[in-house]
C-alpha cells in the first residue's frame, strides 16, 4: 500500500506530457548523427589505439571522412567497403588511413548488399562480446550475491588509476557496494577519449578503456575476498558519451552516469549534440545490462531545492521516457535526486522525506540514486556528519536503492580514506538500525508531508505540459531546468552534428534495435 496519496491522474498527465516531449526530440534526432556516434561504431567494429601523434584512430578515420565530405553516409559504410576491397581488418584499415596510405573515398565500391551483410556480421560479433559480459555479471552475482540495499556508493578520485585501485580495495573492505571512479575535470569537453592507463588527472581520473579494465579486475578480486559482487561506475557523458558507453560495455562496467540533459546544462555542450549522443549511448547501456544514473541532483546546486523541487521530478519523467526510447527498462534507470534542502529551513527534513517518498512511488521499479547534501555543507564536520546521518535515514526509510555516501569533509577537500570509512560506518549504522522503518510508517492523510508531495507533483505536471507546448529545445533556451539557459545553436560540439545522407548506414544501431525490440529507423534512402 502506497505511503502517500498521490493523484494518479496527475501522474498520468505528467508522464503523458513527458512521453510527447521525448517523441518530438526523438523525431528530430532520428535524421542526424554525430562524430561521436560514428567513432563509437568504429570502436565496436574493432578500431582502437592511436597514430604517431597519439590521436585515437577512431578520430583519425572520422576526421578523414569529414574532411572529404563523406561522413553523412556513416563511417561504417566506408570502412567496411575498404575491408572488403582490401581484405583487411577494420584495425588495419584505420592504420593505413593514419599513415596516409589510404583514402577511403577513392576506393572502388562494392554493392550496398555486400556492405550491409558484412556490417551485420561485425555488429553481431561486437554485441555478442557485450552479451557475454552481461552473462558473466549475472553469473557472478548469482554466485556471490550483493550487499543489501540501499547500496553504498563510494567515490574514488585521486587522478592516478593505481592509487584509485588502492582506495577502491580499501572502500570494499570497509563495506562499499559500488565504486565510482570520478572522471578528471574537463574530460567531458574533450572530443576524443584518452588512450591507455593514466596517472595524471585533476579532481578525478581519466576515463579510458585501459583504466576501466584495470579497475574491473581489481574489483573482481576485491569482491571475491569480500564475498559479494562489487559494481563499477564511471561517467558516460560529455562529447564522447557513446564511445565511453561502448568501452564500458566491453569492459563490464555496471553503472554509468548517463543523463539526457546534464551535459547541456552543466557543461554547455550543444543540446542537439547531447540528445543525439545520449540516445545511442543508452541503447548500448541497455543491451549491456548497465544501470544508468541521471543527474537531476545537480539542478539543486544552481537552483533552490525548496522552490525548484518540481523541476527535478519533471526532468526525471523526461529522462524516463527518453530512456524507454533507447530500450532501457525501468529497472536500469537510476533516476537521480538529492537531499539538498537548506538545513536551516523549518521542517526541511519533512520536505526531504516528501520528495524521496514521492519519487519512490512514481518510479516503483527504478533503482533510484539518492545524492547527499553538498550545497549546504559548511566545513563544520560535526554538523556535516549529522546532516549525512539524516540523509541516510531518509534513504533507508523511503527505499532508495543507491545511496551516494556523504562526506563530512565535503567542501573542504577530496576525501581521505578515513573520511570515507566514517561515512560508511555512518550509513551502515543507520541502515542496520532502521532497516524496516519504512514498513512501520503511515503518513497522516492531508498532513504536511503529503501536501508537499502533492504540491511538487502538480507543479511538475504543469511544467511538463508547458514544455510539451513549446518543445524541449525552447524550454532549455528559456532556462526552465536548473535556472540555466542554453542556446539551440550554441555550446560546444555543434560542429560534430551532421544530417544523415542518402544510404546512411549504422550496422551497430540496426542490430541493437533488432535485439532490443525497438522500432527500426527509416534511413534517408527509405531503408
Automatic annotation (TrEMBL):
Residues 5-510 form the D-Lysine 5,6-aminomutase alpha subunit domain. It comes from the Bacteria. Pfam families: Lys-AminoMut_A. One of its GO terms (molecular function) is catalytic activity. This is Lysine 5,6-aminomutase subunit alpha.
